[in-house]
Amino acid sequence: MHFKKKLSRSNLLRGGVAALALAAATSMATIARADTVTLVETGSSLLYPLFNIWVPAFTTAHPGIQLTTTSTGSGAGIAESIKGLVQIGASDAYLSDGMVAKNPNMLSIPLAISAQSINYNLPGLDGHHLKLSGPVLAGIYSGSITKWNDPKIQAMNPGVALPDHVIIPIHRVDGSGDTFIFSQYLDKSTPSWHNSVGYGTSISWPAVQGGLGANGNPGMVSAASQNPYSIAYIGVSFKSEIAKAGLGTAELKNASGDFVMLTHKTVSAAAAARVGKTPKDERISLVFAKGAEAYPIINYEYAIINTSQPDAGTAKAVRTFLTWALTTGNEYKYVSQVNFLPLPPAVVSLSKAQIARVQ
Amino acid sequence: MVFRPFRTSLLVLALLIPAALGAVVLFLAIYAGDAFTFNGLRFIFGTVWDLGNLYGNPVTVRGVSVPLGAHYGVLVFIIGTLLSSFIAILIALPLSVGCAIFLAEQVPEKFRPVLAMLVELVAVVPSVVFGLWGVAVLVPFIAKDIGPALSATLGFLPFFAGGDTGSGYGLLAASMVLALMITPIIATTLLDALLQVPRENREAAFALGATHFEVVSKAMMPMVRTTLVGGVVLALGRALGETMAVLMVSGGAINILPHNIYSPVSTIASFIVSQLDSAEQDPTNMAIKSLAEIALVLFVITLAVNAGARLFTTGVANVRNAK
Amino acid sequence: MSATLNRPRRTGHERRRTLSAALGWAACALALVLVIGPLLDIVYVVAARGLSAFSIGLFTTVTNGTGGGLLNAITGTIILSLGALVVAVPVGVGAGIYLSEYGTNRLGSGIRFLSDVLTGTPSIVLGYFSYIVFVTWLGWDFSVLAGSITLAILIVPYLARITELALRQVPNNMREAGFALGAREPTVVFKIVLPMAAPGVITGILLALAISVGETAPLIYTAGWSNYQWNGHLTNSPIGYLTYVIWSFINEPSDSAHALAFAAALIVMLVVLAINIGVRLVVRRKKPG
Description:
The structure holds three protein chains of three kinds. Chain A has two domains: 39-113 and 304-355, 3-Layer(aba) Sandwich (D-Maltodextrin-Binding Protein, domain 2); 115-277, 3-Layer(aba) Sandwich (D-Maltodextrin-Binding Protein, domain 2). Chain A contains 15 helices and twelve strands. Chain A has helices spanning 3-9, 11-27, 48-61, 74-83, 97-102, 134-142, 151-156, 177-189, 191-196, 216-226, 239-244, 264-275, 312-326, 332-335, 345-355, and strands spanning 37-43, 65-69, 88-91, 106-121, 131-132, 168-172, 212-214, 230-235, 248-249, 251-253, 259-260, 298-306. Chain A starts with a helix and ends with a helix. The longest helix of chain A is centred in the first third of the chain and has 17 residues, at 11-27. In chain A, the strands form two sheets. In chain A, strands 1, 2, 3, 4, 6, 7, 8, 9 and 12 form a nine-stranded mixed sheet that branches. By secondary structure, chain B is mainly α. Chain B is 70% helix and 3% strand. In chain B, a hairpin with a 2-residue loop joins strand 2 (59-61) and strand 3. The longest helix of chain B has 37 residues, at 286-322. Chain C folds into two domains: 13-52; 56-286, MetI-like fold, CATH 1.10.3720.10. Chain C has twelve helices and two strands. In chain C, helix 2 (12-51) crosses helix 12 and helix 5 crosses helix 7 (144-168). Chain C is globular, with a radius of gyration of 25 Å. The interface between B and C is large, with 89 and 89 residues.
C-alpha cells in the first residue's frame, strides 16, 4: 500500500540505476537477430515434461521462434505471466475468480488433460488394487483413519488381509497442481473436508502424527517406496517411476459410486462428462465427474496468457505456438509420452477462440 | 577532523554492506505492509499456516482483504529452525574439535595440508548437491540404522524415545546435513588457532608432566576458546539460513510441532522456498506479504544470535585484557 | 620429571590418564573420518552417476527441453559468476581493507556485525528481494544483471571478512616501516599491505567464485532460465545456469533429464572442488610463526 508512494519518491534513483544498466547493456556489442522471437514459458512442474517434449518438435517446425521452458510451479506461472516476465504461464489450475477480477485480460487456455493416481506401499498387497474413496482418503489425511485395517477401509475391500499398521500419509511440501486436484477430490466428495480444509495448490494439512511432506513428484515416489505402509498422490506423468518403485495403485470411488482404475478409457470418460459444460473462458474443474466409467482425479493443464502482448511479433509467436500445441502438439505420440490425453475437439475449438484474442 | 579521501572512499565501500542489508530489510518490511496489522502477534505464536480459500471471494478481516479462512502462524517453522540449527551445533562441535585437534597434533606436517583441505572441502559442496546426497544416502541410512540405534540406546531420554523412528526424513536428517555443512567452518577456525598457540605454552605444560592429550585439552583448548565461539557463531549463521539441502531432507512439516528427533520439521528458509509458489496464487497478496514477514523474523533471529555472540566474545576479550 | 622415570611405579591414576588420552585420540581420529567420509561418498555418488552422461555433445550443444547438452548452462554459470565478481570484488575487498586498517572503532565493529547478519541471511530471501526490486520494480526482468547483483550481495560479506583476516596477518611493523619512509596511506595499503596479503585476498575471491558457481536459490527468481546461449543483453533476457539443471531436472520423469542433472552436479562439484583445491595448492597455507 505505501509501496507505490515510496517508489515514486525514489524515481530518481531508479532512473539512475536504469541508465547505468542501459549504458552497460548498449556498450556490449550485441547482434540481436531481428527475425527471431524469444518465448519463455514458466510454471507447472506437471506440464513441464510435456513442454520439453514439444520444444524440439516445435522449434524444428518454426526455426524463427526460440522457446525456453522452466519449471517453477503453477503459482509462479500465473504470477509471472501477469507481470509480463514470461509470455506463457503454465498452470495445473485455472485462474481463480479473484485473479480474473483483478486481471481481466488474463486467459486460462487448456492445452491437455492430466490425471493423478493414488499409490501406496503395502508389503504383500502392492500388486492388488485396493479400493479407496474420497471420504476414506480425507479420513487418512486428517488423522481420523489411522490404521490400514480400519473398518472403513476393510468394508470397501472385503476379503483383503489389511495389515494392522499405522498409515503414513505423504503430501507435497511445495505448492503443486497435484495437491490442487487431490484436495479438490477430497473437497468435492467429503463435506467435512470441504468445511475444514478446502482445496488449493498448497493447503493447510491437518496435523497427522507420522504424516510426511515430500518435495516434487520424485520426492513423493521415493518417500512412498522408502516407507512401508505409506500412501501418496502422484501425477500420471510418473507412471513408469511408480511401476519401477513397485507401488500399488488404488481404484477410486467416483461421483456415481463406482470404483475405477486410472486408464485412458476412464480418463476420457471423465473428460467427456465435462466437455459440454466447459464455459467459454474454459475455467472448470474436471475433478469428481459423473459417470460409471469416469476416473475422479483429472484436470485440464492450462496456459495462462495475457491478451495484450508487448508487440505484434511476440503476439503472433504466442498464437503460433499455442495453435501448434493444440493441433500437432496434441497428437497422441506427444502427449502419451507423459501419459496425458489429447483435448476433445470441442475444447480445442474453445481454446482456439481464446487464442485469437491474444494481440 | 581532517578529510581523508582514501579512508572515506574505503568507508563508503564498507558501508555498502550494511546498506545492502538495510535495503533488503526495508524493502521486505514495506512489502510485508499490512501483513503486520492482519497477523499481529498470532503470527509468532500461531502454529497453523493456512492460505485460506484462494478460489473463493476474499473477505475483509481487521480492515484488510484476505482469502476466507486465511491464518498465518509460524511458530512451527521458528522452532524447526532453532532446533535443527541447535542440534547441528551439538553434533558439529565435538566433530570439529576432534578434527582440529587431530589435525593440529597428530597428523604429520607433510599430510596436514591435504587432510585439512579435505575437511574444508566439505563446506564448499553446493547445498543442492548435499541435498541430492542426503536424499540418496543419508535419509535411508537414518531410517534403517541410525534412527533405530538411537532409539534403542538413548530411548530413555524424552526426545529420543519413539518406537517408530520414522522415515528418515526429519529433524535428525536436517540436523546431520547441517552439521556436516558447518563442521568445517568451526574446525578450520579452530585449527588455525591451535596452530598459533606459542610453543612456550605447550612446552610449559609438557614440563609439568602432562600427557600429550592433556597438553591439548587442558592447556591449549582454553587458550582458543574465544576463537571457537567465533567459529560456532559463523557456523550458526550459515545453519539458520541454509535452504536447499534442508528443504530436501527435512520432511516438510506444517501445522505440527516436532515431538521427537525423528519428526518431520520445516525451517523458515526452506518453508519460504516451498511456499513462495502457492503464495503467488493469492489474489489478495496477503500470503506473499506474510512470507516477507517470516523472512523478517529470520532476520531478527540471526540478528539476535550475532548480538548474543558479540556480547559473549567481547566479554571474554575483556577478561583477557584485564589479566 | 619425565614419564620414563615413573614407569616402574605406575599408579592407577596414571593408567587412567594414559587410557583417557588414548580414547581421546581415538575419538579425534573418528571425528576426522566422520567428516571426510561423507565428502568422499558425495564425490563418489555424483561422479558415478554423472560420468555416464559425459560426452562431447554435453559441452557443445545447448539444452533442448530436458535433453541435449549443457553448453548454455555452462556459459551462463560463467557469465553470472564473473558478473557477480565484477560487482562484489571492489566492494568486498574495499570493505575488508577498511575493516582491517581503520575498523577497530565502534563503526567498524558495527559494520562487521551487520556483515555477519547478511551472511546469515538465507539466499532465497536475497533472491526474493531482488525479484521484488530488480526484476519487477526496476523492470529488468529475468536477467544477467539481476542474477549477478544478487550473487554479489551474497558473496560480499565473505569477501570482506576474508580480506580483513588476510590483511590483519600482515605484521604491523611493515605498515610502520612504510609510514616511516614517508609513504602515504594509499601507498602503504596498496604497495605494502595488500601485496603481502594478496594470497589471502585471492583465496577469498576464488572461494567467493566457488560459492557463486554452486548457488541455486537466489537465481531461480532472478536469472530465470534459457535453453539458448546468452544473447549479450544485460537486462530483459533470461540466462541458463548449471545449478538450475540439478534442482529442476532431477524432478523430471525422463532418464535423460536425470543424466543431465547428475552431469551438471558433477561439473559444478568438479569446478568448485578444483577451485578450492587449486587455491590451496598454489597458495600454500603459511605456517604461523
